[in-house]
# Entry
Amino acid sequence: MMLAYLGVLLAGIACMALLDARFRLVFGAPGRRRRAIVVLGVGLVFFLAWDVAGIALGIFHRGENAVSTGILLAPELPLEELVFLGFLCYLTLVLYTGALRLIAAKEAARR
# Structure
């Protein structure tokens, strides 16, 4: 059970990557790969800095549980948090570009 949470996060990322590849939303879109990498990286750095600040201020604490790996990247910062932040940023990009595509299709159908 130690890898359950990390496994679920990685499975979620894999499913989003399949959707991304199928519909060419984020990384699969022609000419947008570099932009997607930058946006994903900036989001990841921002949220990681947010977590580090929260940990330094004593706001965030890591809770012991049976589903985490127990690997810490820093005090109170588990490996799963970094993967979750990547998942969150990637999910946001997929949802945003998917919503734009749906809105554009609806507008095109109206005309």
Summary: The chain has a mean pLDDT of 94.
